[in-house]
Amino acid sequence: MVDRAAPQQKPLTGRVPPEAVRRRAFPALAPDLLERYAAIGDLTPTASDAMDNLGLAGVVPASVLAPQLPGRLVGQAVTVRNAERPDTVAAAVREGKSRMGEHEAYNLAEPGNVVVIEGLAGVSNLGGQSAMVAHRAGCAGAIVDGGFRDPDTSRGLGFPIWSRGVTPVTGKWRLQTVEINGRVRIAGVSVDAGDLVLADQAGVAFIPYAQAQAVLAEMERIQDGDRRQQRDIAAGIDLRTLAATKYK
């Protein structure tokens, strides 16, 4: 069985209007399925090949979303969609009220979930305090289509972030969170809350929830072929035979 029942709904924090929260919970993928994903070497390259074979798009290279820590992620997405504030920075400072609401995603997250933020470039969509709250909530890491700041804090926590870059510029007066656990667009890829996120030093792969089993099966088939080929290379099989052998 691929999934389990959705966890019981949690009360909201009020960081965003209730109508901005599209889903309070989503079905969890089975732990054994996630463990099988985590056991695959060359995680996102293998996912990219599998998704190509299945006619799926959803892979973003590290040249676009760069990893800030060595490591990898396998977890379901809790999503945040940010937009530019309509007022000026000066007006926002005078008002003195932040409209950032990513903490609501952390509140709704289950341990092992990955925070996925559609944000603004050059502006922090996730800072050090935010990383601390996400880490405390059990989130495995974050994917930020935009900027983040306070990298020493996230590194000290061992909280991995993939992003478009680091910035000193706060988002507090420049952006507003308009949706939690709805559909976001990350580097051109549509991602829904509950979709599977894979990330490593090569990049990020977003796998639709409904396709998680099929993609895993194809990734394991590809990995088996890679291992057979590696054994033949190590055994000294001649290049003509290697070139003529279909491994995957």
Automatic annotation (TrEMBL):
User: Which keywords does this Swiss-Prot/TrEMBL entry list?
Assistant: Magnesium, Metal-binding
MF terms in GO: metal ion binding
Cofactor entry = Mg(2+); a divalent metal cation
Entries under Gene3D superfamilies matching the protein: Ribonuclease E inhibitor RraA/RraA-like
Which positions bind substrate? R149
User: Superkingdom of the source?
Assistant: Bacteria
InterPro entries reported in the protein's UniProt record: RraA/RraA-like (IPR005493), RraA/RraA-like_sf (IPR036704)
Please tell me where Mg(2+) binds in this chain: D150
Query: Which named protein is this?
Result: Putative 4-hydroxy-4-methyl-2-oxoglutarate aldolase
Question: Organism, per UniProt?
Answer: Bordetella genomosp. 2
